[in-house]
Amino acid sequence: xxxxxxxxxxxxxxxxxxxxxxxxxxxxxxxxxxxxxxxxxxxxxxxxxxxxxxxxxxxxxxxxxxxxxxxxxxxxxxxxxxxxxxxxxxxxxxxxxxxxxxxxxxxxxxxxxxxxxxxxxxxxxxxxxxxxxxxxxxxxxxxxxxxxxxxxxxxxxxx
Length: 159
What we know:
Layout: E1 5-7, H1 9-15, H2 22-34, E2 39-41, H3 43-50, H4 55-65, E3 68-69, H5 70-73, H6 78-91, H7 99-111, E4 115-117, H8 127-139, E5 146-148, H9 150-158
Helix pairs in contact: 1-2, 2-4, 2-9, 6-7, 6-8
C-alpha cells in the first residue's frame, strides 16, 4: 500500500533551483503527481509559496503534485490541530516563529499522514525533538508521521 505524504514548502523551492537537492526534490514532486490520491498540501504551504519570488512556477508545481489540502480534509478538527500545535510549542520550548511548522505537523498527525517530506531539520522537525514529539502524540492518541528528506523518501520507496 502506498503511503500518504505531505510535501513541505522547501521541496518545491529546491525543485526550481540548481542545487544538489534539486533532482531529489523534482523526483518527489513527480511521485506526488503520479500518486495525487496519496499526496497532501496545506494552505500554510500555499501562503509560503505565494510569498516566493518564483510564485507562479512554485504554485504550478504545487497544483500538479498535490491531490488534497489538509485543512479541507480535516476542517472539523482544526481547533484540535491548533491545540496540538500549541502543545508542541510549549512542551518542546520552541519559539513562536516555529508555529507554522508545528501547525503543519499537527495537521499531518491528526489527518493520519504517513510521511512528511522536507529538507527542514530544525525546530519541531529536528532529530533531537522527534522522540518528544512522538511522546506528545502518543499521550494524545496519535501516530506520528515519519519525517524524511526527499532522498530518504526516494530510497524508501525504491526498496
